[in-house]
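Hi U.,

Before I forget, here's the chain from the pilot set. I'm dumping it here mostly so it's searchable later in email.
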Amino acid sequence: MRRTKGLTMIEALLALAILGVLLATVASLQVSNLTVTRAAAADGERLEVARAVFETTARRIEDDFAAYRSCAGGAGACSDAGTRDGFAYTVAVFGDPVVRRVGGGDVPTRGLVRVDVTVEGRGGATSLHRHLSCLSATARPAPSVADPGAACE
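Structure:
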């Protein structure tokens, strides 16, 4: 029996099945990519808001650093909450925080305040933690290496 040119029905169906599996895989990857891209965009927006809120808080602290050094636990005047660009945020300020060493143990600090900003919205939350020094707040003499916090007294 002599074969004619072209594909048989079985060969054509097999090729279509392979093509269908490949297209389904590519479509699944595309959907995953879109999900990750949207999540990354929301994270970026929350981080932008957290930075803006931190900068506003930092200017306020630098204007009256002594008042914020007495903050304990982020209560009262040491906390703030609100909305910005459609995101809810909270701010807590802690005076003279304890810094944890990588190898273990705590290091008490002088002349620092810790600012924690948390932004929530669009399916998640982002936190930003920064320390501000009294040296950036006002013009002070250079601190000594032995006791850098002494310049803030």
